[in-house]
Design goal:
The complex is a heterodimer of chains A (about 270) and B (about 280).
Chain A (H helix, E strand, L loop, with lengths): L2 H30 L5 H5 L2 E2 L4 E2 L2 H32 L5 H13 L3 H15 L6 H25 L3 H9 L4 H29 L3 H6 L17 H10 L4 H30 L4
Antiparallel strand pairs in A: 1-2
Helix pairs in contact in A: 1-11, 3-6, 3-8, 4-6, 5-6, 6-8, 7-8, 8-11, 10-11
Chain B lengths: L2 H6 L18 E12 L2 E12 L3 E5 L6 H8 L9 E9 L2 E2 L7 H7 E4 L10 H11 L5 H14 L3 H4 L12 H13 L5 E5 L7 H14 L4 E6 L2 H7 L2 E6 L2 E7 H6 L4 H7 L5
Helix pairs in contact in B: 4-5, 4-7, 5-7
Classes of the chains: A mainly alpha (about 270), B alpha/beta (about 280).
The complex binds adenosine-5'-triphosphate (ATP) and magnesium ion.
């Protein structure tokens, strides 16, 4: 094939992807936008969600995902650093890699079951924000470890050598050279993890419950947007509100991505 | 005039020239039967040599003769590679480099190294030079700026980059990168500077400038320079060691090495019979 044809082919495939994406988002927008008012965002649901808003579900989603990330991101990134920078030539990374790969392939409902048995029943946390967040963090941890490890491994050894040769310690080299270069890759992993956590229903419904009330403490039950959407649609309560909820979820994912980028930049420091 | 003199354009210098006071002529680096192994492969065999304080010391030898291995043994960078080991002793200021209780980071701050393949850290030109001092805890912006400017001036790079210090360093040319790596090391004010073929990416004019620069720097530092090029060794005209296949064949002033080599292999190399 000539270069021209290959280019055309790729342009076609890319175009198709974009069309599919635009169609899905456009469809949800067209159906969800009419119901999307300020009161929909800021009020509590009435009549199981047939009328009223989705404020508690927004709070529940942000809390669950936020806490899960707050736990899993540092643990996951530090684990990846340990595996790549401190124990690279041992058996440990291989074992952990096998473990994370297996865990990443496990359906989320298994995590839900585990969270239910362990956090909800055994630790007696009940259906709560905390149980849900802990379950989600266990679910996204493998993704974060795996992607961070790959990103850190991809940093050329020459950078490490230069930094070490300039009298930096290993840890200084990690924080000032390795992590900043691995940042885009790590960010991608964190984004994937957020996407997985925020859209999760099965693992959440088992562990955080589906209360429509605003959670007051971390031990209160709550309902996330996907769970709300799922119940509205499945029980035929209100399809319009289901679409509006889905649309809010998409907007939320966008907002969180932007916020995560900002925080990461702040943490690793902008270069001069 | 001998051929050597013709090349360098000036008389042969003593081992330790430009009037370095006698107090400066104590031993800085000493190797005793030092060997280095990559797995089973012996890359350095029984090397014994002495390098004095404020001396410019040139290591010359063909590709694969163990020059880089020797430099990387001095700042313990060679240890980073798995399955490496050494035998014999290697001392700086009488202290064994591989002794227990040696702070490796501190050792590497004192023994700066310029790599054969210059690498820009993925940050700005300024941050590349400021990296070492920052890691030593220098935080004050004014102080950092002064250190960076001085180091870049000393490495003859300042005029070319002073207006774009915040550009990413990867945009520099190969030769500029090489001088940036020199500046990076100078910013730390080390005691010893190891230079691994520092002029391999430079044009003849810049090469001469760097060679001149070495003679200025040696008043403040002890310098070990690696080159595979006999002509460069002759131009630099310092105390010179000839390495071949992991062995130190002979040491002597460049003048002696080039005009009356003790070993046949040295003679062959300087007359261009090897690589
Ligand atoms: N990381 C390594 N693993 C295994 N062997 C190595 C490694 N680095 C170097 N060697 C071997 O050690 C010997 C000496 O290599 P060294 O890099 O010290 O040579 P050199 O004199 O610097 O050569 P050049 O002029 O090409 O840079 C060579 O035979 C090389 O193959
Ligand atoms: Mg080399």
């Amino acid at each position: 094939m000539t270069d021209r044809r290959v280019t055309l082919l790729f342009a076609g495939i890319t175009g198709l992807t974009i069309v599919v994406l635009v169609f899905i988002i456009g469809y949800i927008m067209v159906n969800g936008l009419p119901g999307l008012t300020l009161s929909f965002l800021l009020e509590s649901p009435r009549e199981m969600g047939r009328t009223g808003g989705i404020f508690p579900a927004i709070v529940g989603t942000v809390l669950l995902t936020g806490i899960a990330l707050f736990i899993a991101a540092p643990v996951g990134i530090l684990t990846a650093v340990y595996l790549t920078e401190y124990t690279r030539d041992t058996w440990l990374p291989k074992v952990v890699r096998f473990g994370t790969e297996s865990l990443a392939g496990i359906p989320s409902i298994i995590f839900g079951l585990f969270g239910f048995l362990f956090f909800v029943i055994y630790l007696d946390l009940g259906w709560s924000v905390l149980s849900g967040a802990l379950t989600l963090s266990a679910m996204i941890l493998p993704t974060i470890v795996r992607t961070s490890e790959e990103a850190i491994r991809a940093v050329p050894d020459a950078y490490r050598e230069v930094s070490l040769a300039l009298g930096s310690t290993r840890w200084q080299t990690v924080t000032s050279v390795v992590l900043p270069s691995a940042k885009p890759g790590i960010m991608t992993g964190v984004m994937l993890a957020i996407g997985r956590a925020i859209g999760e229903t099965a693992a959440v419904i088992f562990t955080a419950g589906s209360s429509l009330r605003l959670p007051r403490t971390l031990l209160d039950s709550t309902r996330t947007l996907p769970v709300h959407f799922y119940i509205l649609a499945r029980e035929g309560i209100s399809l319009e509100n289901a679409y509006s909820t889905a649309f809010v979820l998409i907007l939320l994912i966008l907002a969180i991505n932007i916020a995560a980028h900002t925080i990461m930049n702040r943490l690793t420091g902008k270069e001069r | 005039m001998t051929e050597t003199e013709a090349v360098s354009g000036r008389g042969t210098r003593e081992d330790n020239n430009r009037g370095i006071p006698a107090s400066g002529s104590t031993t800085k680096i000493s190797a005793r039967n030092f060997s280095f192994f990559y797995g089973e492969h012996c890359a350095l065999r029984d090397v014994s040599l002495e390098i004095r304080r404020n001396q410019l010391f040139t290591i010359m030898g063909p590709s694969g003769s163990g020059k880089t291995t020797f430099l990387r043994a001095l700042n313990r960078l060679g240890n980073l590679i798995p399955n490496t080991r050494h035998e014999g002793s290697l001392k700086i200021d009488g202290v064994d480099v591989y002794g227990k209780g040696v702070d490796v980071a501190e050792l590497r701050r004192r023994v700066g190294m310029v790599f054969a393949l210059p690498v820009a850290l993925p940050m700005s030109i300024f941050s590349n030079v400021a990296h070492g001092p920052r890691m030593q805890g220098v935080r004050h912006p004014k102080e950092l700026e002064e250190i960076v400017e001085k180091a870049l001036r000393d490495a003859i790079l300042w005029d070319e980059v002073k207006d774009r210090l915040s550009d990413n360093a990867s945009r520099l040319s190969g030769g500029q990168l090489q001088r940036l790596s020199i500046a990076r090391v100078l910013a730390l004010e080390p005691e010893i500077i190891l230079l691994d073929e520092p002029t391999s990416g430079l044009d003849p004019i810049s090469t001469l400038r760097i060679e001149e620069l070495l003679w200025e720097l040696v008043e403040r530092y002890t310098i070990v320079l690696v080159t595979h090029n006999p002509l460069q060794a002759a131009r630099i005209d310092s105390k010179t060691a000839f390495f071949l296949m992991g062995e130190l064949i002979e040491t002597g002033s460049a003048y002696d090495i080039f005009t009356r080599p003790k070993d046949k292999r040295t003679e062959d190399y300087v007359s261009g019979k090897y690589g």
